[in-house]
Structures are given as structure tokens and as C-alpha cells.
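One such given next:

>
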Amino acid sequence: MLSPHQLWRPPPRQLTLEDTVVHIWSAVLDLPQARTSELAEACSPEEHARARRFRFEQHKQRFLARRGILRTILSRYGAGAPQHQRFTSTTYGRPALEPLPDQPAVEFNTSHSQALFLCAVARTLTVGVDVEFVRAMRDAEQVAARFFAPGEYAAWRSLSGQDRLEGFFVCWTRKEAYIKATGEGLTRPLDSFEVSLRPEERPRLLHDARDPQNVSRFGFHDLRPAAGYVASLAVQGRNASIECWQWDA
């Protein structure tokens, strides 16, 4: 059902990010303790406080790893040293960097599922990314009926076997990526817009009841960061291209 894996390459020493390009980073979060501790040194007191609230040690370590990895990635785009970066959020909770004097524009969005972390970075394009580990869900029917638009639900119900299993997560990640890219997050009803999900269809926005013009404004890319995972990128810019990088611990 899904397209072949992109070529996730080690990044070059000197990164160049053009205005019409989005960089997608993939990273594994289950790292040696010493490496996680190094990454945690760049985290803020607030991030350490959040980590302490996790019940399970594995979840705490993964949280610190992904925050540290995010900071190291953003530092490669002129966002300042990892430990000096400061974050804020928009009205609807979308994370953003507090700009530094003479700092080039850096837009980013992140997602994680189990031990996999994705980060999308752009200069001027607004992006949203979402990743999910594909697994059987006993309540998939109820979730789809509640959150999918009627056309999506009908399309998903028409699938069978592996296509139906993967189709649920294809639809879900496209929808999540879209509401992240628009900046509305979960304030936006998920059934108020429709995305494609059938195997033969290209990834795209089919309808948006709130803003019909977004059909021509936003583009989608399917991502295959690792075996067993599906992911989607939504970007405000139909002609944007992507480059995929593998973060090296």
C-alpha cells in the first residue's frame, strides 16, 4: 500500500536548507544511558521537571532524548547552541523557537511513536509531521467512525486486510500532520476536513469545510522512516520538496 522507503541518509557536514525544501529527520530514542545523559545536559529545567513526571523510566529517558535531539538538530540551522535555545508556543499550542537577534527563520514540527522520533525543519514553509507505529487496534472501528470525515470512513471501510490496517494510520497521520501545519491542533474537529487514504490515490487534502482554499495551498508527503511505521508531512506549499536525514547518535 505504501510507497517505498525514502533514502534516509546521514546528513552532510554543512547543511543547506532552501526556502522551498523541507528537511525531515528520523532518530531512534532508545539510546545508551551515557548518550541520553549527554543530550539531557542541553535540556532546560522545565524539560527536566516534565521528565520527572513520567511514571516509567523508559518514557522519561525517551522524553529527554527527543528534547535533546531536537535541540541538536535545530542548532544546525542557526538556532543557537542547544542549551541556549528557548521555546514558546502559539495561541493553539504549536511549539516555536523564540527568535534570536539576526537568527535565520526556522520553522519546525515534531512527532514520536514508541522509540521513533521525527522532526521536520523549514525556513519559510509551515509544516506539520506525524508518525505512528502500525499495530492492530481493537477500537479502530469506533475511532474511525468518530473522527474520520464521512468520505474517509467510507473509503477506509472499503479496504481489507493489510490495506485496511495501514489505511487507518495513513489517514490518521495525514489528518494529524494537517492540523499541526495549520496551527489549529486538536481545537480543529478532525471530521471537518477530508484527506485521501486509498492505496491508489496520491496523498492530498480533498476537502476543508472551514477553509476550502487550503486544498490548493497544502501538499502532503508520505514518509517511511522505519519498518512498521507510517508517517505524513503536511506543508503549506504545493511545490515543496523534501530531503530525509538520519540522525546519528
Notes: Helices lie at 33-40, 45-52, 57-75, 140-147, 150-157, 161-182, 214-217.
